[in-house]
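SAMPLE LOG
Freezer: B-3
Tube label: C17
Construct: single chain, 61 aa
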Amino acid sequence: MPFVQIDLLEGRTLDQKRLLVEKVTQAIIESTGAAPENISIIIRDMLKENYAKAGKLASDK
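STRUCTURE (predicted):
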């Protein structure tokens, strides 16, 4: 039973998330043979103020 967590910076549309979960699900099916009903995906939207890279908050860019 594959369980996937995806962290994204805020700003993706609902349509983008739909496409993402469809493609991730298909990749798991093709690579593991898992049935689609056994694949769970959680998308966590992260505020840009809660993510930093190279010492800079994403919200400051």
